[in-house]
Amino acid sequence: MRLAPVEDEIRNVPFVTELEAGRASLDHVADLLGEQYHIIRSDWGSFSHLVTRFDDPASRQMFGGIAGGEEIALDLLLDFAVRLGRTEADLAACGTR
């Protein structure tokens, strides 16, 4: 199977292994939250834009639902960031990789 090496790589990401073992630093987790903050905001905007691009109700409903999910994800991410002592401004200041 040609995907086996890729699957193994995905399953053995060092950060996830460290996180599961309780050895990941809070700064490393906060960095991940900063990256996700930018990704979620970008995706939310993209899906919101797609709602306006289609005339049929099914497409609008689908993309609107996905955009709503991004909104929920952002709220949850911000709640988690607060638990790590980070603000939304802190996350916004993080660069993406």
Short characterization:
By secondary structure, the chain is mostly helical. It has five helices and no strands.
Describe this structure in words.
With 97 residues, this protein is mainly α. It has helices at residues 4-11, 14-20, 26-53, 57-83, 88-93.
Question: Would you count the extended β strands for me?
Answer: 0
So what's the overall shape?
flat
The poorly predicted ranges are none
Question: SSE order in H/E notation?
Answer: HHHHH
Largest beta-sheet details: none
Share of helical residues: over 70%
Oligomer: single chain
Q: Mean pLDDT, rounded to whole units? A: 92
The fraction of residues assigned to DSSP E strands is under 5%
What distance separates the N and C termini? 30 Å
Instruction: Please state the structural category.
Output: mainly alpha
Outline the secondary-structure elements:
Blueprint: H1 4-11, H2 14-20, H3 26-53, H4 57-83, H5 88-93
Task: Name its key features.
78% helix
